Model the fold of this input.
Amino acid sequence: MAQENLFSEEMISPSLRHDLGLGLRMELEDGKKGRATLYRHGILIKTVDLRDTAAKRLFVVETVELGAVKQYLAGALGISRQTIDNYVEAKCHFGVEGLIHSYSPSASKGLRRQREAHAGQRVKGNKSHQLADIRQQEKTVVAKELERQQGFDFPTDIPADAQPYNDIHGWQPSRYAGIFIYLITLVKRWNWLSLIIGYFGLAYPIFLVFSLMSALNIRSTEQLKNIWHTEAGLILGLGRLPSVEKVREWFHNAASRRLSQLLLTAYFRHQLKTGLVGLWLWFTDGHLLPYSGGKKIRPAFHTQRHLMVPGRMNQVTCDTNGRVVDFVIEDGQGDMRSRISDVTTKWSKELPMCPVSIFDREGHGAEFFWKLVCDQKPFVTWEKNADRKKLTALTEDQFTVGFELNRKQYVVFEDAKSVTYVPEGANPKTEAHTFTLRRIYIWNKTSDRRTSGLAWTGDWEMNTVDCAHTILSRWGASENTFKHMQERHPVNYQPGFAFTDSERQDIANPAIKKIDRQIKQANKELATHYKAHNRTKDALKKDGTSRDNSKKRKLQEKIDVFEADIVRLKEERSRLSERVDVSTLEDYASFQTIDNEGKYLFDFVLTSIWNARKEMVDWLRPMYNNDNEVVDLFYTITRCQGWVKSTQTEVVVRLEPLQQPKRRSAQEQLCRKLTGLSARVTNGKRMVIEVGESPLKK
Done:
């Protein structure tokens, strides 16, 4: 039976009622030196006389162990946060006797004699100084051991007490415990925290906040006001997540350092060197980042809406499993062809062989194909404007090899295609370049559709099925990286906007557009008069000559006028430049460019979360035999609630168990594997994750 509240709400002054978090409330009588009563959800937990020093210390430690926020408790009792930490650690290291060591005993002679008899067994000296020495010794020992095991130094540019997961506390609940599995994988496999702290120092907390947003699909910092800040801060190792205004301050502090490109380069290089991404097939595609503000920026093509809209293009290169290898953000439509060539050149020193570039029809072109062949860069792509009649005329017996992909049946065969490229201004007879590509014919028998692709594979040994399978694995009926990322993660989020005048202020000459419209209209009128002229019979005089005022003669005169106008307009057009600078025109606003620094920082975290997700889903597959549900199971685990505990040597997260036995078994196996990685945060604490019942149950 629940205990009744001993004090009426009306009897307690609001100034003496203090909320401590997690449903805990403390009410004071006679101020900070009087009587304190602790409630959880209105139920009496404990009452203590604050004038009794020993009882007060025990009360503080027990309240913290119940999940009270130290900052709130310190403010309510008029003590410092460090004092509370000393109480908690004194009990941990010296026991209850050490906690109340400075307590002056009461008049009880028996208790006094008992304490005097055991005085030699108690720790002597200033316990605050002793605890500080213990903290430093433990961190030094753990750091040196981890340095020996993993072969890297911990960052030294931030103090130990400012590093993540520095606080020590007992079990505390968190709704966001599941995202800890991302952090374990990133810390161990990508050296994620060390990388961030090494570049950004004390500005690292914004990256942990971004990881929370990326993992939980929180699409704006404004939405952070709707989460539980204490529970989010616990799982991120930040104590308590601050207000939205403070988070924005963190973001601007990190973005102002202009280190995103250095960070991304180090991150991508680490992936390549440690085998975290594939080195054989690289798929390059663009994702539109639309902009709906009032500034004038360059347009990009919106595939779903089939029109140009203001925005930028995120050119992303992925491996065959969808892990992000590299990305770059470009204004407007971007240059897909340059990106395909540049990304392989950029990482050539880290690669044993040039990977095969896979791209869609946007990269199709004889000039581009010739450049790739000359640079010895293999590729596979769709054939643009394939001859439909020729594809339909192919007989069934020509398709010699079959395979299945995504529950669809395909048959393929290949032949050769000769391609000729003539540079602009070159002589077609003497300066043309002719080369041969592989043409892959693909017949989807499930949908009875036919298409073809082109390939030049260089030194890679790729048969016909390999080439067909490669192009279908990204743009066929299968996983599209951007589609799946957008469903689960805030791909389009821009943390902040800053604008500058774009270096590119050229546009298509509006005068040419105007002349083209006039030429089009003149051709339309000319065609109409041609038809009328052909239908009209000529009126003749008696001598057989045409009459001067005949309808046919008048139509001919109008035709002559239109033809002369078209010649004149074409001459005017030839004298105009194709593109002009908008600053030379009237009533034209300058193009603005969006500063991508903040977007790069957010997308770095988003890429990290996505690649870690790919890694862990691969680990989870052998643990769960239903492949169609394994991705959903993974996201279910990441959204589990749980409890967090931080000791001197470990950060332990316990997840609530899933209900279905088969799913719970996979959850437990994944957590054991993650714990077995022996990941450690930058202060040396080991990261542990487990599955079990609530540790707060009595």
